[in-house]
């Protein structure tokens, strides 16, 4: 299976438009015009399946009209020479759980510690709710997300972006004594449920709410005919603790080649890369 196909969906295109971005389609592939200083670039998230001359010609036509310097894309297979490897925008590697197995088999495939944490959360009467998309529930989730970002040093998107994102996705929150202590935004597209964003409270950490939260989401996805649970990112070097948590549920890691650039204007592209490198240095 291919990870991240929801990024090519009509819903994701509408979300991008809500963010004020122009979108296009080339042979069905979503192309997003992204701001870059006073100019722009074109971004094809998790696509296309294959870079062809016809695709590039159509992209060049759009780039000329929109003053785009380069095309950024994320193919399923490594492209031929002539394309420049860039920093990954979306996770190149992720952990995938096959939901066609029985619940007993899914539990058996987990690490013993994960099964223990699920049972401990159940014993502590943690309750997981698939929430209504209202301001109260969003604020509960955003507080958890913000706390997690501050605790782990993760830079968050704007609050408005998460609120707009929720219009196209589902929200699950785990409660302990009626207090929200863990939450997750989940995307359901075709046969895959994808974990997009999550947060948890440092309080009541010992009741292990995140483990039960995801187990309940997995069961919900399975009962709604999803075949895969995509953890949306696994990297033991960049995110060791988060990745260890995800891999505790079992499954398999899959990797894509990552992100590549195709410059339309070599001079401006090289200038952009130089400025970017100086900023990172």
Q: How many structural domains in the coordinates?
A: 2
Say what the CATH topology of the largest domain is. Aminopeptidase
Strand-and-helix sequence, N→C?
A: HEEEHEEEHHEHHEEEHEHEEH
Number of helices: 9
CATH superfamily of the largest domain: Gcn5-related N-acetyltransferase (GNAT)
Question: Whole-number average pLDDT?
Answer: 95
Largest sheet: 7 strands, mixed
- Indicate the overall shape: elongated
- Supply Rg: 20 Å
Give the low-pLDDT segments: none
Helix fraction? 25-40%
Give the termini distance in whole angstroms.
37 Å
Structural class: alpha+beta
Give the strand content: 25-35%
Side by side, the strands of the main sheet go 7-8-9-10-11-6-12
**In total, how many beta strands?**
13
CATH class of the largest domain: Alpha Beta
């Amino acid at each position: 299976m291919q990870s991240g196909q929801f990024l090519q969906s009509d819903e994701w295109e509408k979300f991008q438009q809500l963010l004020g971005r122009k979108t296009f389609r080339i042979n069905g592939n979503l192309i997003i015009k992204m701001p870059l200083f006073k100019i722009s670039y074109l971004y094809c998230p998790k696509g296309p399946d294959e870079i062809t001359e016809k695709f590039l010609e159509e992209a060049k036509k759009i780039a000329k009209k929109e003053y785009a310097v380069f095309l950024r894309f994320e193919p399923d297979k490594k492209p031929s020479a002539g394309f420049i490897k860039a920093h990954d925008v979306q996770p190149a590697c992720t952990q995938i759980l096959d939901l066609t197995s029985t619940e007993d088999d899914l539990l058996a495939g987990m690490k013993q510690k994960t099964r223990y944490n699920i049972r401990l959360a159940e014993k502590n009467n943690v309750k997981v709710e698939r929430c209504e998309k209202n301001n109260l529930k969003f604020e509960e989730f955003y507080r958890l997300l913000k706390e997690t970002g501050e605790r782990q040093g993760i830079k968050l998107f704007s609050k408005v972006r998460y609120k707009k994102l929720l219009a196209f996705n589902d929200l699950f929150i785990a409660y302990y004594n009626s207090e929200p202590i863990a939450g997750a935004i989940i995307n359901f597209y075709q046969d895959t449920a994808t974990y997009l964003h999550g947060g948890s409270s440092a309080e009541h950490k010992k009741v292990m709410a995140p483990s039960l939260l995801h187990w309940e989401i997995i069961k919900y996805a399975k009962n709604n005919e999803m075949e895969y649970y995509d953890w949306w990112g696994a990297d033991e070097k960049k995110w060791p603790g988060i990745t260890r948590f995800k891999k505790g549920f079992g499954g398999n890691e899959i990797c894509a080649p990552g992100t590549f650039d195709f410059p339309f204007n070599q001079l401006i592209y090289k200038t952009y890369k130089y400025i970017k490198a100086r900023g990172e240095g």
